[in-house]
Each structure stands twice: as C-alpha cells, then as structure tokens.
Amino acid sequence: MYAMSSSSSTTSYVVVKQENEANSQVPIVNMAPIPAYKRRRNEKPGKGLRHFAMRVCEKVRSKMVTTYNEVADELVAEYPEGSNAEQYDQKNVRRRVYDALNVLMAMNIISKEKKEIKWIGLPVTSFQEPSTLSQEREDIMARLNEKQAILEELIVQQVTFKQLVEKNKKYEQIHGQPSSASVLSLPFIAIKADPGTVIDCSISQDKKEYLFGFSNSYEIVEDMDLLKSMNLSLGLNTGSSTAEQLEQAKACVPKKLHEFLSRIAIESSALDVVDEQPTKKFKSS
User: Fold this and answer.
1) What SS3 class is residue 47?
2) Four-residue CA torsion sign, 254, 260, 186, 169
3) Biological process GO annotation list (predicted)?
4) Structural domain boundaries of the chain?
5) Beta strand spans in the chain (E)
6) CB 280 within 8 A of CB 272
C-alpha cells in the first residue's frame, strides 16, 4: 500500500491504493451508540422538536398562563419510566420543552415575562387571511376618506381666507385703513337671536371667560360659516363655482392641490351641503 498526497490553496486530501485487495482486511471499528437527541429525524418521525413544540403549544393554550416548570413536569409525567427511557429521560424532555418554548416565542405565539408564560395566539391562517385583509382594507379606506374630507375642508378655508385678505386690501385702497374699533379679528363666533331676546353676559376679570344667558332660543355661527355666506369661498361649498371662480380659487392654493379643487366643485354640486349641515340651534339656558 502506498499513499499520495495533494494540496491546493483551499483543500488537501490523501489518496490510498490497496496493492493486494484479496489479502486486505477491513478493520472493525467499535462504534458507540448515537444518543437519542443526535439521531436523524427520519429515525423517530414526529418525536423531535416539532412534536414537542406542538405538545407545548397545546399545554400553554389550555392554561393561557403557565410556567416552564409546570409544562415540563406535565410532559415528563406523560412518559413513564421504562418506556424508551433512553429517548424520553427527564433531562431530554425538559431540554426539548425549553427549545420548543423558544421557538413559540420567536413565532410570537407565546410571550414570557420573568417566569410567567402567556398565550398570545396562533398566526392567521390562510382561511382567515382574506377576511382579515378585507377588514383592514375597509378600515384604511374609511381613514383615507376621513382625511380626504379634512383636506378638502382645509382647502376651502384657505381659499376663503385668501379672498378675505384680497377683499380687505381693496377696501383699504378705497377707504384707507379702518379704525381698530371696527376691526374684527379671527377667530370669532357670532350669536344670532330674535330681536326681543334678553341676553345676560358675564365676563371674568381677565376677560378670558364669558358666560351668556338667553331668554329665548339662539344660534351660534362660526367665523368660517359667516365668511362662506359672504361668498368668499367662491362657491366651492355650495357647488355653484363658475369657471372664473374656479381659476381664482386655484390661484389661492399650490398647484398640487388644483385637482382637489375640481373634485370639491363637482362633489359640492352633487350634494346639497346647506341642507346636510344645518346651522346648530340651541335652547335658552
């Protein structure tokens, strides 16, 4: 027998040639038995980590709240002494339980806080996924529609405020700057009541709180509603905007919002906003 060796930068090996195969004897190697935890999965199907993970999952799910020792003790008790003791010894079972718990925690099926283990739930199945995605889509669309309505209202307010500024500029050019007593600052509210209504108003010393008492019913009109009634919104809130007014409105907002202006004008013309959003009325207090 002789041996040849070859080597490279990455590997090295030895080639052995037998001169007299007839007289050669194959040495007998005394192999030690392979421990149970090192055996291949196909030797004991269903009895590996996957099997213990399922058993541990069932235990935690039935208890909802438990501990490692409680689960391990119950699983050890399920394998009596003398039945495959080599594979199901207590240390092996407890180690399998520990590994299974780590797998379940990694999958977010259970949670662990100190020694307490809590059941969270199994992942969404393929049968539940369509209905869950459908519900998520409905929720997203509802939030999207709500945000779009808020954006459209802010656009109308922007146009209204810009038109108010232009109106005040034109007034100052003709009549000069008004006196401070005739200037009404934003924001404000207006209270509308019948001519015979008696109004009692109390003001705090710091003039930050006002208490009103009315002898008859009254209405509260917000500043934006009042400005819209002066047609400063260019008809966007009522759907009566002309092509000229729509171009005026586009000059009041960035170019990226022009498509929203056209949409607002179309939607407002299809809905009677005045009837759907009546002025709030209050009884006397």
Assistant:
1) coil
2) positive
3) regulation of cell cycle
4) 49-119, 136-174+187-268
5) 2-7, 12-17, 65-67, 110-113, 116-119, 189-193, 199-203, 210-214, 218-222, 281-282
6) no
Tokens read off for 17? 């040639």
Buried b (16+ CB within 10 A) or exposed e, 234-259: bbbbbbebeeebbebbeebbeeebbe
Q: Which CATH number fits domain 136-174+187-268: 1.20.140.80, 3.30.390.50, 2.40.128.20, 3.40.640.10?
A: 1.20.140.80
- The owner of tokens 């509802």 is 142
The per-residue pLDDT for 44 is: 47
Amino acid in the structure at residue 281: K
pLDDT in tens, 253-264: 888 888 888 788
Q: If DSSP codes are grouped into helix, strand and coil, which group holds residue 165?
A: helix
> Which residues make Cβ contacts (< 8 Å) with residue 221, sequence separation at least 6?
189, 190, 191, 192, 279
Check: CATH 1.10.10.10 for 49-119? yes
Please indicate, yes or no, whether the overall pTM of this predicted structure exceeds 0.85.
Answer: no
